[in-house]
Amino acid sequence: MSRDLPMVVPAPGLPGRVTIYEVGARDGLQNESSVVPVEVKAEFLDRLAAAGLTTLEATSFVHPRWVPQLADAADLLARLARVPGVDYPVLVPNERGLDRALQAGVEHVAVFASATESFAQRNLNRSLDAQFAMFDAVVTRALAAGLRVRGYVSMCFGDPWEGAVDPAQVAAVGRRLVEMGCHQLSLGDTIGTGTPGHVDAVLEACGAAGVPVARIAVHFHDTYGQALANTLAALRRGVVTVDASAGGLGGCPYAESATGNLATEDLVWMLDGLGVGHGVDLDALAATSAWMAGRLGRPSPSRVVRALTG
Ligand code: HMG
Ligand code: MG
Q: Quick check: CB of 119 below 6 Å from ligand 1?
């Protein structure tokens, strides 16, 4: 028996193709209570590349005491197949992290800012203002070394300590990252409280602040089941890069209410039904997530992974 397929019914106002920025190996595994063996991480990334994903955020060069789950960053990069045409960005918070990333031969790094004071303190040990000086040094040196730099903004929708976040504040932080030289801005709903109208408001504010929508990516955590609806709202406004995590792995160790990201499989199912191109082999991807769930000892939270592999 062949498997279920969505009927392809294009909807108006959507892009013809979307780039999936896969964060499972970084955002997913940084939040695991156990440290996943480096050879399992390498196999995970190699399998994701084989499934057709072309942007694989691999790991972070953060302080190993802050995120012990990713302390093996250099070892992991040395083990990867590094498939031609596949981009392997890494998170870098500061110059020490950049030094380590350069030594590992990376070509693409991401700095990660906070839209709120509370999360800047907790995640970066810096004030909201001081985070920019730290990133400015990283971006300047990274660009001079020929790297590309992505800029994340966290807590773009709600913050567990401060509540609702003003879209104008998000846009102001994002604009500073773009002015520094970030080629792309990823707007993070770190705790997943956003809803589609709120997505419109944040994208509207970014547009008003002069950030072109073509440079914006969306990064939705699925804590309250809104990630897919929020993604559709963003696509309708012209966003063409969507962050997602294979099998819905994810969270943030410094924001307890954060759970997994939008599952890549759930995104691919919706894009298939809408006739939007993405280049991913859904069966190979779901099999990879089911395999990873087995390594982690619990089922994938992705409904599509469960339906296809259960
Ligand atoms: P700090 O303690 O203020 O660091 O941490 P420091 O600059 O004061 O340095 C203290 C010591 O740490 C020094 O060593 C440094 O060399 C060392 P000493 O001189 O004392 O021997 N050090 C490092 N060692 C290795 N690698 C480094 C590094 N940096 C300093 N990179 C820091 C500041 C930013 C490093 C720390 O707060 C940190 O690592 N934070 C990272 C937290 C994190 O990774 N959070 C998860 C990622 S963000 C996220 O998940 C959200 C996202 O998905 C989007 C969304 O969902 O919204 C992106
Ligand atoms: Mg995240």
A: no
